[in-house]
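About this split. The held-out portion is used to measure sequence recovery: a designer receives only the structure tokens and must propose an amino acid at every position. Recovery is the fraction of positions where the proposal matches the reference. Here is one held-out target exactly as it appears in the evaluation file.
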């Protein structure tokens, strides 16, 4: 079980998206290229803009990580639509105590995204790739050829990965909206 106090402490040390990228400007270019290439549709923006519950979102990442390069900017695009999404970034290796609680498939993977309520009660821990990203990798890697780790992924795969991240943000928002504990707290 994720230690809520540790989550809150690490979150307080977390950085905004641009601050995080500024910690390693030599590697930020790939992140910026993906960010510039990706945009939410008006329908997607409208859905995210309609969120009324505050969400704490912590991304445990590595600027050096190819999967983080391909997915981090998508998460940033989602969060920038609604100020109720408080998004922070931390480096996996710097925050080793928290990272050790977020292993996936027996290892320290990145990115790992923790979505929590306003009081840091965890709602979801996701990582390291969405289903669409795994499907795309399987198509390319389970054969004779293997993609380069920094290669641009196909646009349709990026769109599918973005939609899957949006679905998770929406799922957690509904969880927060329907939570009896939070409904009592907010009188709705």
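Reference sequence for scoring:
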């Amino acid at each position: 079980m994720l230690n809520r106090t540790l989550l809150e402490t690490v979150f307080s040390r977390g950085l905004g998206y641009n601050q995080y990228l500024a910690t390693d400007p030599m590697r930020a270019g790939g992140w910026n290229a993906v960010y510039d290439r990706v945009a939410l549709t008006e329908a997607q923006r409208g859905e995210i803009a309609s969120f009324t519950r505050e969400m704490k979102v912590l991304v445990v990442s590595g600027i050096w990580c190819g999967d983080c390069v391909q997915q981090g900017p998508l998460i940033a695009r989602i969060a920038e639509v609604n100020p109720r999404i408080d998004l922070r970034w931390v480096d996996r290796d710097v925050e080793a105590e928290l990272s050790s609680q977020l292993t996936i498939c027996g290892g320290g993977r990145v990115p790992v995204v923790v979505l929590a309520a306003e009081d840091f009660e965890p709602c979801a821990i996701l990582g390291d790739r969405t289903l669409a990203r795994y499907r795309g990798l399987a198509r390319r890697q389970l054969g004779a050829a293997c993609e380069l780790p920094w290669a641009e992924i196909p646009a349709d795969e990026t769109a599918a990965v973005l939609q899957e991240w949006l679905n998770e943000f929406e799922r957690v928002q509904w969880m927060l909206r329907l939570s009896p504990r939070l409904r009592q707290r907010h009188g709705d």
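Annotator remark: Residues 155-178 form the longest helix (24 residues).
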